[in-house]
Amino acid sequence: MSRPLLATSGRDYARRLVSAWDGLDVHIVLTCARASGSEPVDRLAAALEIWSPLASGPDRVHLILADDDAATWRSFGRIAGFGTASLEVPPPSRLQVATTADRRPEIERLRRASAAAERRAVPHPRRGRRPRRLSPTG
């Protein structure tokens, strides 16, 4: 699993996330852009403080200093144990990211369907209808 800002999650969230993978060989891989100054170093130290104790050993904690997308992808492949030559990652400019505005019609449709389902299931105080019982599935 890889998500932006996952490294800065709180200790409790990180603990719950790793415990969900109990019994699996979990590696912690932190990806950090090369930067100057103390802020990136401080953030990296905080992330290591949160995530390192959750790994089953020091050989399960990895750090990738990201120079560019291709080098980062190759480094991740080496850590995870797969070849990256045949697995092309599209550059960010080719990725289609849907915004909330793009999804507004779908969100509105789901909102209307949800409201209609609630009206059918909950009795109206003036009508005195009882909720429909669902028949058991067999």
Main traits of this protein?
4 helices, 2 strands, mainly alpha, 138 residues, two-stranded parallel sheet
| Individual helix count | 4
- How are strands sequenced across the largest beta sheet? 1-2
Judging from the principal axes of the Cα atoms, what is the shape?
extended
Summing up helix and strand content along with how strands pair, one would put the structural category as mainly alpha
Overall helicity:
40-55%
Percent of residues in β-strands: 5-15%
Largest sheet: 2 strands, parallel
Radius of gyration: 23 Å
Order of helices and strands: HEHEHH
Number of strands: 2
Termini separation: 37 Å
Average predicted confidence as pLDDT: 75
Q: Which stretches are low in confidence, meaning pLDDT under 50 for 5 or more residues running?
A: none
Model description:
- The chain is mostly helical and 138 residues long.
- Helix content is 41%, strand content 9%.
- It is built from 4 helices and 2 strands.
- It has helices at residues 11-19, 38-51, 69-80, 100-121; strands at 28-33, 61-66.
- A two-stranded parallel sheet has the order 1-2.
- Strand 1, helix 2 (38-51) and strand 2 form a beta-alpha-beta unit.
- It is extended.
- The mean pLDDT is 75.
Brief summary:
This protein is mostly helical and 138 residues long.
In terms of topology, how is this protein built?
Elements: H1 11-19, E1 28-33, H2 38-51, E2 61-66, H3 69-80, H4 100-121
Parallel strand pairs: 1-2
